[in-house]
Write a structure and sequence with these properties.
Layout: E1 3-8, E2 19-23, E3 29-32, E4 34-35, H1 39-43, E5 54-55, H2 65-68
Antiparallel strand pairs: 1-2, 2-3, 4-5
Length: about 80
Amino acid sequence: MALHMLGKDPNSENGQSPTVYYDDVTGNYILQGWKVLDADRLAQMSIPEHETVIEFPARMMQFFPEVSGGSGHVV
């Protein structure tokens, strides 16, 4: 499996996070973001034990090729 970093949040302090990756084996995106710990927000979702919830800013949608109109994935 090879993960390709598509982009980091340009407004993130020290460029650490959030980050969008593309998995070229599964064709899925992997998102690194802030843990959602707010009980009120989590209570509004049905989250199975094998899943987790993260949050990332809308400004990062630019890194998804489907949004940016890109034909390929950034390495």
